[in-house]
């Protein structure tokens, strides 16, 4: 049951990976949902521009997604690299 | 050692019961407060309908209350059920059950309040559609309760499954992680489902003839908003049923606890976001019913993107469980 330094470091990396991806997923999820809600509103008001609005929505969501991808990268680094 | 184990398991049951009921009371109270606030606004707008509005408010609040009643039942079970005190794993399971039920009731409680409140406003605006509004409110808020029901299922499994043969390390972390996974992920799905249900009650009262399309889009949107809590349930089941080889290293325990936290927190945002997308779609289907096909399509595309971070969280959780 002796806990060694290397074990504590590895344990912290695993817990950190979980927290990184878990907490990091909250923001993009909410933000992308807001984008989609506004896109629905815009298409409801002006259906002829549906194509343009869909493109704008997807590009905006892709930018919002970036922080989620940063979290994923850090989580994978914590799991497999450091 | 024997006395110590008994004291620890007993303490875990008490702390777990406190967490279950304490956290579990938060959501329902907020949701019911929202319903009552909107009902007051509706009565002041149209006082001669106060009877109908009052009745609808009470029905809506009763549904929102159910999330905290689940928490009450779980808390009472934990206090008075004679769980064997001779195994520390039972203590971890009870703590996990309390966290799961407590967090799990938050989102469903708040979310169920939205359709209740909007149905009250709708009755004041359009008294002729009162029965449809009440029906739609009940369907919408019942779907909002499913994440709380998932949490109750996991909490009851944690309380009643025996863990006699499993090794203490790292199973204790798997049990606490299982509680976090379903409990936290349920927050987003419950809240998000409520946003869609509230918008549908509002929409029906504005455009009563759109009721069929509005209810359909609401149910599709809510179903997608439920998926993060289903991911949470899946990770919980893996953590509950997989046999982990005995290991008293800290890292094997933290990998499992981290997996539960990852999926739990990771489910919150996509659940809320999917609900927001569904809210926007439902609102505009009611106002522009001819475009409901296009709106449903754009809602699903937006939700799919919003869902992606929940999928990342599930992937990281599965890597933590199966790979490292």
Molecular structure report:
The complex is a heterodimer of chains A (82) and B (324). Helices cover 87% and strands 0% of the residues of chain A. By secondary structure, chain A is mostly helical. Chain A has one domain (5-80): F1FO ATP Synthase. The longest helix of chain A is centred in the last third of the chain and has 31 residues, at 50-80. Chain A is rod-shaped and about 65 Å long. The mean pLDDT of chain A is 91. Chain B is mainly alpha-helical and 324 residues long. Chain B is flat, with a radius of gyration of 21 Å. In chain B, 65% of the residues are buried. Classes of the chains: A mainly alpha (82), B mainly alpha (324).
The largest pleated sheet of chain B is described as: none
Structural class of chain B: mainly alpha
CATH architecture heading of chain A? Up-down Bundle
Question: What spatial form of chain A do the alpha-carbon principal axes imply?
Answer: rod-shaped
Short description:
The complex is a heterodimer of chains A (82) and B (324). In chain A, 87% of the residues lie in helices and 0% in strands.
Core attributes:
heterodimer; A: mainly alpha; F1FO ATP Synthase; 0% strand; B: 324 residues; mainly alpha; Four Helix Bundle (Hemerythrin (Met), subunit A); flat
């Amino acid at each position: 049951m002796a806990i060694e330094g290397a074990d504590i470091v590895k344990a912290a990396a695993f817990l950190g990976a979980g927290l990184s991806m878990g907490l990091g997923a909250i923001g993009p999820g909410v933000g992308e949902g807001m984008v989609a809600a506004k896109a629905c509103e815009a298409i409801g008001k002006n259906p002829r521009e549906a194509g343009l609005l869909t493109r704008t929505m997807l590009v905006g969501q892709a930018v919002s997604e970036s922080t989620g991808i940063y979290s994923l990268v850090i989580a994978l680094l914590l799991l497999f690299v450091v | 050692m024997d006395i110590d184990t008994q004291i620890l398991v007993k303490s875990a049951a008490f702390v777990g019961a406190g967490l279950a009921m304490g956290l579990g009371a938060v959501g329902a109270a907020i949701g019911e407060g929202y319903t009552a606030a909107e009902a007051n606004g509706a009565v002041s707008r149209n006082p001669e309908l106060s009877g109908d509005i009052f009745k609808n408010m009470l029905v809506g609040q009763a549904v929102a209350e159910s999330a905290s009643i689940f928490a009450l039942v779980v808390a009472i079970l934990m206090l008075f059920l004679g769980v064997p005190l001779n195994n520390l794993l039972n203590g971890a399971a009870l703590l996990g059950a309390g966290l799961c039920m407590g967090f799990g009731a938050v989102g469903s409680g708040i979310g169920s309040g939205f359709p209740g409140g909007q149905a009250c406003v709708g009755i004041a605006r359009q008294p002729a559609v009162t029965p449809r509004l009440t029906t739609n409110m009940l369907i919408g808020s019942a779907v909002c309760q499913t994440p709380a029901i998932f949490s109750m299922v996991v909490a009851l499994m944690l309380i009643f499954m025996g863990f006699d043969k499993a090794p203490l390390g790292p199973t204790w972390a798997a049990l606490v992680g299982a509680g976090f996974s379903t409990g936290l992920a349920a927050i987003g799905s419950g809240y998000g489902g409520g946003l869609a249900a509230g918008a549908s009650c509002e929409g029906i009262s504005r455009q009563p003839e759109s009721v069929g399309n509005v209810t359909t889009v609401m149910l599709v949107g809510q179903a997608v908003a439920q998926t993060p809590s289903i991911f949470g349930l899946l990770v919980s089941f893996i953590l509950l049923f997989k046999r982990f080889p005995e290991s008293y290293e800290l890292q094997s325990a933290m990998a499992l606890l981290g997996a539960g936290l990852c999926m739990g927190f990771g489910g919150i945002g996509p659940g809320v976001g999917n609900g927001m997308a569904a809210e926007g779609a439902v609102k505009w289907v009611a106002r522009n019913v001819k475009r409901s096909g296009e709106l449903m399509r754009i809602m699903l595309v937006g939700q799919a993107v919003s869902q992606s971070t929940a999928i990342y969280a599930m992937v990281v959780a599965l890597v933590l469980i199966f790979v490292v």
